[in-house]
Specification:
mainly beta, OB fold (Dihydrolipoamide Acetyltransferase, E2P), five-stranded mixed β-sheet, 3 helices, 12 strands, 11% helix, globular
C-alpha cells in the first residue's frame, strides 16, 4: 500500500476514488498505472459479459472491463466524465470503466473499517475496507478478489 506520514506522524493510505452510480469507491493508488478518457474498444468474442473488449494503448493491448456490469449494476452509455482507470492485477494491466474519477485521498487507519456483509450492491468479497472521509463513505476495492483466477487468466490470454 502507498503509505505516507502526515504532520502528526500517523501513517496514511492513499486511494484513487471514483464513482459508479452514486456510490464512491477507492483503489490503492499503487495499483493505478494511469487514468485515460473513455476510448473505443474492440469486442472480443466469447469473453465474459463484463469485458467490454480490448484497446490499444501505445502499442499494448489492454482488456477493458465495465465495472457496472461486473457489479451487476445497470449499464449506461459513456458520458463526458466516463474514464478508464488502468490498474495492474497480478501482473496484468486491466482497464476499468468508471463513471467519474474523483480524487486521490489520504486515509488514516482510524478512518478504515471492515466492510459489512450486507447492504451494498457490490459483493462484499470485492471490498477490502470501508472508509469514512468527510461526509462520504468510500468502498475500498480488493482488486485481487474482483476476478477469479480463471477469469484473470482469460484476460491475460486475450492480450497475447
Amino acid at each position: 500500500m502507498a503509505l505516507e506520514r502526515s504532520e502528526a506522524g500517523v501513517r496514511k493510505n492513499r486511494y484513487l476514488t471514483f464513482y459508479l452510480e452514486k456510490e464512491l469507491y477507492g483503489i490503492d493508488i499503487m495499483s493505478v498505472q494511469e487514468i485515460i478518457a473513455m476510448m473505443k474498444t474492440t469486442a472480443v468474442p466469447k469473453t465474459p459479459k463484463c469485458v467490454k473488449g480490448v484497446m490499444n494503448l501505445r502499442g499494448n493491448i489492454i482488456p477493458v472491463v465495465e465495472l457496472r456490469t461486473k457489479f451487476e449494476m445497470p449499464t449506461k452509455a459513456p458520458e463526458m466524465h466516463t474514464a478508464i482507470v488502468i490498474v495492474k492485477i497480478s501482473g496484468t494491466s486491466i482497464g476499468f470503466i468508471v463513471d467519474q474519477v474523483e480524487e486521490v485521498v489520504n486515509l488514516g487507519e482510524d478512518q478504515l473499517s471492515e466492510p459489512p456483509q450486507f447492504g451494498s450492491s457490490v459483493n462484499s468479497a470485492y471490498l477490502k475496507k470501508m472508509a469514512q472521509n468527510d461526509n462520504n463513505v468510500i468502498m475500498i476495492l480488493n482488486l485481487d478478489a474482483i476476478f477469479a483466477d480463471e477469469e484473470l487468466a482469460g484476460l491475460e490470454t486475450i492480450t497475447k
